[in-house]
Amino acid sequence: MRNDRIEAKREAESLDEPAREARDLAERLGLEPYPVRYWVVDHDQMNELIAYGGFQRRYPHWRWGMNYEQQKKKDRHGLGKAFEIVNNDDPAHAFLQESNSTADQKAVITHVEAHADFFANNEWFGLYADRGEDGPNAAARLERNADRIAAIAERTDVDRDEVERLIDAVTALEDTIDQHSPVDAARSVEEPGVAADVSDGDDDPLAAIEARIDDLDLSEEVRRDVFDDEWLEARGEGIEPEEPRPDVLAFLRDHGKRYDPESGKAVDREPWETTVIDAIREEAYYFAGQKQTKVMNEGWATYWESVMMGGEGFAGPDEFLTYADHMSRVLGSPGLNPYKLGFELWTHVELRAARREVTDKLLRVEGVTAENFHSRVDLDEVAALLEPHPAIAGAGPATLDELADLAAAGDSRVDAEAVDRALSARDGSGSGPGEGETGGDGDEMDVERYPWKLLTREGLAERHYVLSRPEHRGALRNVSREALEEQARYLFDVDRYETVAEAVADVDRTAGWERMFEVRESHNDVTFVDAFLTDEFVREGNYFTYEYSRAAEEHRVASVDADDVRKKLLLRFTNFGKPTIVVLDGNFRNRGELLLGHRYNGVALDEERAKATLKRVFELWGRPVNLATIRVEYDDGEVRRAKRRGEEPEGTEVGVRLQYDGGEVTEHDLDAETESRIAADDVDYDTKPDDWLA
């Protein structure tokens, strides 16, 4: 064991320099990540961290052991090696696999730096993180929850099995939070086992009813006779939200009870039970940001990893093939791959912004209009003019003199101080290029290994300019006349250029990156896909939808239309890809029953899973619970006829209400009014981030 610790320490020390230099490069590229603390762990420790969701301590529960065994088997059979884990915190903590090659360690470090930037700057993470001056402080919060729940489970007056049963029920509903609202809707509990008040009197339905009775000014005899305690309890057991309430878990916390099998009635919860619900609900908000931005976040990290590792040679010559294999495996994973989709969408965002910047300048050239753009402008000439300056593209020991000349002329693309230090190291010490010396700020000036030190962000943006990459050099030819006409309409009282060369010289090479940083701040996966999955993206990426054909009894390509692809992806990402469930009535049928509604968007529920979850809801409500949904039913005869015709059968949408009262789940017809409340004529994804963040 001691030898293992020594080896891990030695491995960690070897990564000090790559971590330091990766942070320098990330900041030069414009990233603003949280500080990152790196830890090197072995296979078993990594499997434990994965089981615990990226943290070293969680509350006691059987599922962590189950997660561990599953991950251990994957790791043993080569089905799911984890290269790293990084959590959203300030500082962020990144755990690297001890067995990684040097190339893999460098790759995951650059990947982590980009993740830490996304955590720090995306507003959806801010819904959890913006909770005071200390930022997210996730590790401390989750450790505090672990201590609280562990203390509850160890109490002599509490049955540990009841604690685990409650945790099972709450975790089954952890995706029913309102992920568009700040986490502070959850109560703050300061001591283990002590819950804060559920609500003030204004929100207590029973108190409101009693106040109305007082206003009637009845005699005490009539009051006791008509409005007895049993009647009051039935009326106070639930409330009906004015609008469907998306935060089901909070509603259950505030108004739910516990079913007592001995009395056969709902009884008030113990304070410790509310403490457990609050703790797990708070953690659900922490993980919500990651679930909402999986494609964006992984794509963002993959994009900047590729710039640093490949574009800037952070992977050394002897490491590049290993890194290339690593990246190809990540991007080549089958199915809906968030790394690949995210990487390609971010590149598309960059490309569109850069292309618009260039066409904006070219439309200002005298004699150029949207109508004659493609015939008047020599796009080969434009492509040549957009190539980076040779000294910028080849920044390093061989171009020091040229870079010094640019710096002397005040060129903002060059880090004049770094160039001067590199020249001094080369000419003053007599050392060869690349050996260098330690600079005044303590950084080693090795410009052969770290050429980015010679350039500013502007220089790096030109060096990696998207329209200069071979795969995108023809992108300007794809701009339609309609797009140019729309863009030209907004060119009022602007500077004009006499030649194409003058216009291109004024192009801002950072425009693509600037747009990426803007998008990174406010979007989540739903808004990201909705805004940027364009016809062009679908066509060039060969994206399509597929679905199961009841006629052919197999999966087939359904559409290559961008709207269809977008809709399919939005369905996968809305509400973490889970069905959206809302509270419709907390006093259904005036019996204190709970009525939940499935916001039907054309995709039917998995009813077996829904029935199992409904039983968990019962445990948190204590009284009968109902779920309104819509299913699609198919007539057997129609299915047979459709098969003969090679067509898809037409199903019939039917409303159904599932009910669970502690016995068996039963099915009932759904009334027309409730069905209309949950049915959607057109799927509304509410995809405007400004509305969600208001």
Summarize the structure.
InterPro entries: Spore_V_R (IPR007390), SpoVR-like_C (IPR057008), SpoVR_N (IPR056174). This is SpoVR family protein. By secondary structure, this protein is an alpha+beta fold.
Q: Count helical runs.
A: 32
Helix content: 40-55%
Spatial strand sequence of the major β-sheet = 8-9-10-11-12
The pLDDT mean sits at 82
CA-based shape? globular
Q: Output the structural class.
A: alpha+beta
Q: Major sheet, described briefly? A: 5 strands, mixed
Rg, alpha carbons: 30 Å
Region (Disordered): 422-445, 664-694
Organism: Halorubrum ruber
Domain SpoVR-like C-terminal: 579-630
Biased composition (Basic and acidic residues): 665-694
Give an overview of the whole structure.
- The structure is a single chain.
- By secondary structure, the protein is α+β, with helices and mostly antiparallel strands.
- It has four domains: 2-122 and 293-331, no CATH class; 342-522, no CATH class; 533-576, no CATH class; 577-693, no CATH class.
- Helix content is 50%, strand content 10%.
- It is built from 32 helices and twelve strands.
- The strands form four sheets. The protein has a five-stranded mixed sheet with strand order 8-9-10-11-12, with helices on both faces. Strands 1-3-2 form a three-stranded mixed sheet.
- A hairpin with a 5-residue loop joins strand 2 (84-86) and strand 3 (92-97).
- Helix 6 packs antiparallel against helix 13.
- The two termini are 53 Å apart.
- Residues 11-360, 509-576 form the SpoVR protein-like N-terminal domain.
- Residues 665-694 have a biased composition (Basic and acidic residues).
